[in-house]
Amino acid sequence: EQSDFVDDLYTQLAQQSVDVEQIHAESAPGQVEVVLGKQDDAMRLADNVVLARSTVSAVARKHGMKALFLPKVFADQAGNGLHIHMSFRDLSPQARLEDRYNAFRRTSVLGAMSHKGSSFLEGILDHLPALMSLTLPSTNSFRRVGPGCWTGHKVGWAVEDKESPLRVCMKAGSDEPSNVELKLSDSTANIYLELSSILSAGMDGMARQLTLRPKVGPSDEGGDALPDSLDKSLAWLKEDKVLLGVLGKELSTGFIALKEAE
């Protein structure tokens, strides 16, 4: 039954030109992960997320099922996230050829991120407490955050650590970092606001040439605690001039008022 659903879902997405890398079962009962293909156009990626979500719901109904995107369905099982992987290319005229493919890694040092990649990470970390109000914008979202939830519970990063909110991923079969994964995201977010805010936070770090803080492992004592509620994250957002500037006064005022009313 599930294989028929997956086959139909893949076909329906392909007919809409939504590139899919993989569809596979996850750890919770009835849980399936859909991995969308890479895009160099953030707007196209956001459109694909919206199309994929609506298509999953429609195909599930067709097969007598109901698709749930709620972040935390079962208290004792893994929740539903919307993890975002990011890398970037250097398209400046003086860029080296390898950086035109992936400027996230530092080609001169084995296993190291580039200066721009490190500053991009630090920009996201610097804004992360406020950013969570846009990437996890519901009370239920925060039930998926904490130790053992594969989201992390501290403001920090690590290499190939699924318990870190920012996971630096290594290229398969090598010691080269390829991209960064943000785990503090789910389907209650507006993907357009979310992506624009995440990218703006990272680019703010690059513009300020921020130095990346030391990585934080699961047993390390370093790293500030993440906000444990939407209210606390909204309080951070109210003080974040960069993210408020991205949203604009009218949208940010309306967004905060709406979330506080909920």
From TrEMBL:
It holds the Pfam family Gln-synt_C. SMART domains: Gln-synt_C (SM01230). One of its GO terms (molecular function) is glutamine synthetase activity. Residues 1-262 form the GS catalytic domain. InterPro entries: Gln_synth/guanido_kin_cat_dom, Gln_synth_cat_dom. The keyword Ligase applies. Coiled coil: none annotated. Keywords: Ligase. It comes from the Eukaryota. Belongs to the glutamine synthetase family. PANTHER family: GAMMA-GLUTAMYLPUTRESCINE SYNTHETASE (PTHR43785), TYPE-1 GLUTAMINE SYNTHETASE 1 (PTHR43785:SF2). This is GS catalytic domain-containing protein. It comes from Minutocellus polymorphus.
